[in-house]
Amino acid sequence: xxxxxEGALDGAGLRVCVVVSRWNEFVTRRLLEGAxxxxxxxxxxxxxxxxxxxxxxxxxxxxAKWAAASGQFDAVVCxxxxxxxxxxxxxxxxxxxAEGIQRVAVETTVPVIFGVLTVDTVEQALSRAGGKxxxxxxxxALAAIEMANLRRQLL
Length: 155
Known about the structure:
By secondary structure, the protein is of the alpha/beta class. The protein is built from five helices and six strands. The protein has a single domain (about 20-150), classed as 3-Layer(aba) Sandwich (Rossmann fold), CATH 3.40.50.960. The chain has helices at about 25-40, 60-70, 90-110, 120-125, 135-155; strands spanning about 15-20, 50-55, 75-85, 110-120, 130, 135. α2 (about 60-70) packs parallel to α3 (about 90-110). It is globular, with a radius of gyration of 15 Å. GO terms for molecular function: 6,7-dimethyl-8-ribityllumazine synthase activity. It is an enzyme of class 2 (transferase).
């Protein structure tokens, strides 16, 4: 019989850093509120949650690397909102954030969760930040807890 491992959704004792983009703060603050709510509901103590604000989504990987490399956190959650405009800027920012966040997770082995909305419109962003399309901040927090607990089993 195969041995099956799954990360529990109990956050007790976990230390989490949430890195949040200030750009499109009217969306990212909602993502942060959802993430903090879920972390609290799942047993992560308020004193074990650190929130770090960065200027924009492109800066998320750098701050995530600092947090992950510090040894202070079991998981890092990156929250941002990149809304398409009329230039290629969207592709550079969204792609850079995604690639950078993934690289930090692989290099540090600390779970670094991609909670960055990449949408065409403000309406789509708000819909994914607690509207009809769910709450990506909450989902990112759950993923962080699950991955941190799975990491403990695998390392």
